[in-house]
């Protein structure tokens, strides 16, 4: 097989993408004739492409006749940033999964909620069965408790007022005062001992940004019998959390 053979390219897609680049180069918009000229396209072709892009939400014609990018471009950009974050976070999670033989999780504060961002698991390190979303069970998971501990008192009370402490297992902490007393740990390690799911334990450490402010948490889950060994690996978890901090700094500033 000839590996040097050029791939089959769709010329109309190339023209549309190039035209979008030209539209984006004019923050205040530009008329179709100018866009066609700069894109090296016949005016009729440019009109057809612009109308198609407008129909799909990727371009918009303003009342004065100039063309600008459409709202779907911003939506696409937002999803792209999420994918970029996953691409940079995943290697650290996979590395810790392989080191500890346990599924690894990364969560962040997003719009005053606790969100699970990514999970690295495998046949020998299965993830916990998420039957109740992490954003609704922060009180019962190490990941959630670690992130609750990062909030100031007002934000923590607001969060708990919006998320009842539901008992998921006989071990779930449902008394606010008792929960709050478990949120600080000298070693920076939060634990879940069968509070979310019977037979499963979890440990989590905070992830900070470049300024040292906590923005999320790195966690691992395992069978209850392995939790003590995971606790002894807290230094390894903190080292991987530091990697994530550098990743987040690069993602934010890059």
- What level of helicity do the residues show? 40-55%
Class by SSE composition = alpha+beta
Global outline: elongated
| Amino-to-carboxy terminus distance | 39 Å
How does this structure look, described?
The chain is α+β, with helices and mostly antiparallel strands and 254 residues long. It has helices at residues 11-24, 32-39, 43-55, 71-100, 142-148, 153-162, 176-181, 227-231, 234-253, and strands at 59-61, 67-69, 103-110, 113-120, 190-193, 200-208, 214-223. It is built from 9 helices and 7 strands, in the order αααββαββαααβββαα.
Topology, pairings included?
Blueprint: H1 11-24, H2 32-39, H3 43-55, E1 59-61, E2 67-69, H4 71-100, E3 103-110, E4 113-120, H5 142-148, H6 153-162, H7 176-181, E5 190-193, E6 200-208, E7 214-223, H8 227-231, H9 234-253
Antiparallel strand pairs: 1-2, 3-4, 3-7, 5-6, 6-7
Helix pairs in contact: 1-2, 2-3, 4-9
Protein traits:
254 residues; alpha+beta; five-stranded antiparallel sheet; 9 helices; 44% helix; elongated
Offer a concise description of the structure.
With 254 residues, the protein is an alpha+beta fold. It has helices spanning 11-24, 32-39, 43-55, 71-100, 142-148, 153-162, 176-181, 227-231, 234-253, and strands at residues 59-61, 67-69, 103-110, 113-120, 190-193, 200-208, 214-223.
């Amino acid at each position: 097989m000839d590996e040097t053979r050029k791939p089959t390219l769709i010329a109309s897609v190339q023209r549309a993408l190039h035209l979008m680049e030209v539209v984006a180069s004019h923050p205040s918009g530009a008329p179709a004739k100018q866009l066609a000229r700069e894109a090296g396209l016949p005016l009729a072709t440019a009109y057809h492409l612009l109308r198609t892009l407008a129909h799909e939400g990727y371009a918009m014609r303003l009342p004065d006749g100039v063309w600008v990018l459409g709202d779907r471009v911003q939506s696409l950009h937002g999803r792209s940033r999420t994918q970029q974050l996953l691409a940079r976070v995943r290697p650290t999670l996979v590395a810790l999964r392989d080191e500890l033989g346990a599924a690894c999780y990364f969560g962040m504060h997003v719009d005053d909620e606790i969100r699970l961002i990514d999970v690295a698991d495998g046949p020998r390190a299965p993830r916990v069965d998420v039957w109740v979303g992490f954003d609704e069970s922060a009180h019962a998971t190490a990941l959630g408790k670690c992130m609750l501990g990062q909030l100031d008192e007002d934000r923590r009370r607001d969060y708990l007022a919006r998320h009842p402490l539901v008992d998921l297992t006989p071990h779930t902490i449902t008394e606010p005062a008792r929960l709050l007393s478990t949120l600080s740990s000298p070693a920076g390690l939060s634990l879940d001992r069968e509070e979310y799911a019977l037979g499963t334990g979890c440990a989590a450490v905070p992830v900070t940004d470049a300024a040292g402010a906590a923005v999320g948490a790195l966690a691992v889950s395992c069978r209850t019998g392995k939790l003590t060994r995971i606790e002894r690996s807290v230094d390894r978890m903190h080292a991987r959390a530091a990697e994530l901090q550098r990743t987040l700094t690069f993602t934010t500033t890059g």
